[in-house]
Amino acid sequence: MLYPSELPGQSYKQLVIRFYLADTLRLVLEVVFRVVLPTKSAPTGRRVSHLVGCMANPMQRTELLKSVARRVVDRRVLHLIKQWLECPIEETDGRGWKRRTTVAKDNRCGIPQGAPISPLLANLYMRRFVLAWKQRGLERSLGSRIVNYADDLVILCKRGKAEGALLRMREIMGKLKLTVNEEKTRICKVPEETFDFPGLTLGRMYSMHTGQARPGYRPSKRSIQHMVRKIHALTAEARVWQGTTALVGQLNRMLRGWASYFQVGSVSRAYRALDSHTMMRLRRWLRNAPQI
User: Fold this and answer.
1) What would the pLDDT profile of 207-260 be if each residue is shown by its tens digit?
2) Alpha-carbon distance 288 to 239, whole Å?
3) Sign of the CA dihedral with 158 first, then 187, 228, and 19 last
4) Following DSSP, what letter does each residue of the chain receive, concatenated?
5) Residues of the chain with pLDDT under 70
6) Cα angle 29-30-32, degrees, rounded to a multiple of 5
7) Is the Cα dihedral 167, 8, 203, 33 positive or negative?
8) Could you tell me the sign of the dihedral formed by the alpha carbons of 273, 279, 280, 282, in that order?
9) What's the rounded Cα separation, in Å, for the pair 7 and 22?
10) Considering Cα of 232, then 260, then 250, then 149, what sign does the dihedral take?
11) Which residues are CB-contacts of 20 (< 8 A; sequence separation ≥ 6)?
């Protein structure tokens, strides 16, 4: 088994995602702004660091199974995990049709997104990167600190050290046979700029009532747009055949799950936007639904 004590200090709490999300964001903000965040508010921070954000993808299947085999001796469990990694991926296209692919099995890399075991396997693999970073003394030489959330991570470091951290990160990722997602990797200067991690936008926020600046976080535009697309798919005209009760139940479950994840930070605007969009789509669906 993988015990919490085996994981680096910044990632072991991911075993309980609901509570770790808030802890992860709080840790990033405290390091970036050099402030201790109270429960509801915080003083304005000052620029003290740069940030490198990246996403490691995809993970090599053989190396991942080796890491699992060091902790799991039961062959049946190992076989079950291997089957889980090779299971087909089901996707829904723009027309609502579902199709299955075996990309993960054919390429022998990557882990299924959305599976309950995926965050744990990602933590297990990324542990190698975090340990390699510490063993090379990069925390001290670059004044850096790593915070990871499954296969996403940020590297917080001192001014002028971001380029060096990015170079060393690519070097270690290459040795671990990981591919850096270049589209999601960038150097960010805080607090002048904001960045997304994980699914939220972190940086300087402004109070709606006083206009005072403070470090904080809110659901990212990409997360809101993703939810809007899911609502749109559920309330499409092609689905007018389903019952009203069933549709409302699906919408409520989806919205509750989204709100449960994004229950930290400044969420009022995001909640209102999704609520308004959902009501508009539901009214349109009811107008098109067959009247009985």
Assistant:
1) 777 878 877 888 999 999 999 999 998 898 888 788 888 899 999 999 999 988
2) 10
3) negative
4) ---GGGS-TTTGGGGSHHHHHHHHHHHHHHHHHT----SS--------EEEEEEEB-PPBHHHHHHHHHTT---HHHHHHHHHHHTS-EEEE-TTS-EEEE-HHHHHTB---TT-TTHHHHHHHHHHHHHHHHHHTTHHHHTT-EEEEETTEEEEEE-TT-HHHHHHHHHHHHHHTT--B-GGG-EEEEETTS-EE-SSEEEEEEE-TTT--EEEEEEE-HHHHHHHHHHHHHHT-GGGTTS-HHHHHHHHHHHHHHHHHHT-SSS-HHHHHHHHHHHHHHHHHHHHHSPP-
5) 1-59, 91-96, 102-110, 112-115, 291-292
6) 60
7) negative
8) positive
9) 18
10) positive
11) 13, 14, 149
pLDDT per position as a tens digit, 269-288: 899 999 999 999 999 998 88
Residue 103's Cβ-side half-sphere holds a number of Cα atoms within 13 Å equal to 11
pLDDT of residue 18: 43
Among residues 171, 154, 177, the alpha carbon closest in space to that of 64 is found at 177
- The whole model's pTM is what? 0.68
pLDDT at 38: 35
Only one residue has tokens 């997602």, namely 181
> How do 152-157 and 145-149 pair as beta strands?
antiparallel
Position of tokens 């971001």? Answer: 162
CA 245 to chain centre: 32
For residue 46, count CB atoms less than 10 angstroms from its CB and return exposed for 0-12, middle for 13-18, buried for 19 or more. Answer: exposed
